[in-house]
Amino acid sequence: MVPKFLRTIAGSGNGRHTFPIRVYFEDTDFTGLVYHANFLRFIERARTEMLRELGFHQGAIHAGESGDALFFVVARMQLEFLKPARMDDLLTVETRPLKITAATIELEQIVRRATEILFTAKVLIAALADGKPRRLPREIREKLALGAAPHKS
After folding, report:
1. Which of 17, 41, 121, 149 is most buried, with most CB under 10 Å away?
2. Total domain count for the chain?
3. Cβ contact 27:36 at 8 Å
4. Is position 152 within any domain?
5. Per-residue pLDDT tens for 108-149?
């Protein structure tokens, strides 16, 4: 059962998955602001929860329970730090597939505090098996494609 605070890609109506996260003391640096690298943790958690909500558990994928043992690796990131987040802020991470190819997924991720955009990322994820690029499973490509922009091959 999917918790109420999560919204599926298909069910959101806009192709976005949302994931709430609270900023804790451990997320901040000596200034009381979120340490920049922690934004990467926030968006990683959101990507994992998006897959989980779509019915894909990374542990099962890594173990090869439905085919090749696959691993997802970050191949490229483009980051923009726009505004700081502070302790106790309630943030929302929005994740939207932009482009899906045979072996990669390009995602847009936005971290917001209410309607205010704090951080953006474009992330290219590649599928690997035995250290080499592998095709994404058809089921993953199909479910993610519900929220992706059309791609011309």
Report:
1. 17
2. 1
3. no
4. no
5. 999 999 999 999 999 999 999 988 999 988 888 888 887 654
